[in-house]
Amino acid sequence: MSPRQALGEGFRHVFGRLPEGIWSAPGRVNLIGEFTDYNDGYVLPLALPFSSMASAARRDDDLVRVASAQRSESGEFSVVEAATDKLRPGATMGWASYVLGVIWALRQAGAKLGGVDLVIDSDVPIGAGLSSSAALECSVALALHDLYGLSLSRQDLALVAQRAENEFVGVPTGIMDQTASLLCRSGHALFLDTRTFEVRQIPLDLKPVGLTLLVVNTGVKHALGNSAYADRVRDCRQAAKELGVPALRDVAPENIDDALAKITDEVVRRRARHVISEQSRVLEVVRLLESGRPAEVGPVLSAGHRSLRYDYEVSCAELDTVVDVALANGALGARMTGGGFGGSAVVLVGFAKTEAVTMGIAEAFAARGYSPPQTIEIVACDGASRVA
Ligand code: ADP
Ligand code: MG
After folding, report:
1. Could you read off the pLDDT of 54-88 as tens digits, one per residue?
2. Is 40 a catalytic residue?
3. Distance between CA 340 and CA 366 in Å, rounded?
4. Nearest bound ligand to CA 344?
5. CATH class of 3-200
6. Model-level pTM?
7. How far is the CA of 353 from the centre of ligand 2 (A)?
8. Which helix (H) or strand (E) holds 52?
């Protein structure tokens, strides 16, 4: 049975009828441009070959009922139920908040929605920094959009999904994940200016030049993450304030030395140095990809990792191990990606070295007593769509 058929069967099992359709939205990995989003800066994600699928059918009443294959036990789904007009941020609905939040945010955006039955099935690794949350939100947002004949743009839907996560679930994320999930195209990375929402498709077709991208999921998530995130946001605001600019994105990379000299606190200065230099790295990677020189992207990725490790201080031993071992085994470049303190890394490597890098990382993890990492070869995929 194909995953779609299985999902259709799952829906019938839970709700005793067939879904009206199935919508799919991918997770993402950010190639470069880390912690630039809350500084109004640039990011460059691509969509993964993993996605959340939402099977859905409208209801005659105002109820939403939702179940997830990832929250079922031995095939038995537990169904979360709520009235669409009673949804309020702050309600503790666990994982279902991501789904209910989308319905709440769509209604806040003025959408006229009735009830809906939903069954979710996703192969995006959960909590690995590959945005299973945005994949889930976007698959649901697109399902409701199509079922209820809404006419929101993909960018509007991304904002709706982001609002669901920020306000309903209560996780302060930028706009990158949802934009990537909805707007990416296969064979391309998506350049996104998080201030203006300008997007541009950047060619990322590595196979013909003998290269591949690996995503290495360390499987760890150190608890430090949440407080450190807030600290970094605060440091960046302070740096922007001292420099008299609305956001760090307003410091031109060529003025970086002058700008940094004006920041009094040493830690804040390093945080700012990461963000300002990361902006130029995104532009440099875009320039290299657009001029057909993908192999030269490698050192820029590695420079990005050093900046995250030493200046922004959001890496961890497992991520540093991935990067160091990948480079020692012939990778062209590697960096942590996502929120840091665990999660995943990306590695750019030639075909001939792929196995050595993969094995080297596995062995290094075993030697250090870490749990086995998951290393996956990826290609840039299409954003969300209706699949049945
Ligand atoms: P990431 O987005 O990096 O995977 P997050 O912590 O942002 O990590 O989101 C993970 C959360 O999203 C899970 O803990 C769960 O609440 C929810 N989630 C994601 N995918 C699913 C799914 N298929 N079924 C149920 N909940 C999911
Ligand atoms: Mg997430």
Report:
1. 999 999 999 999 999 999 888 789 999 999 999 99
2. no
3. 21
4. 1
5. alpha beta
6. 0.96
7. 31
8. strand 45-58
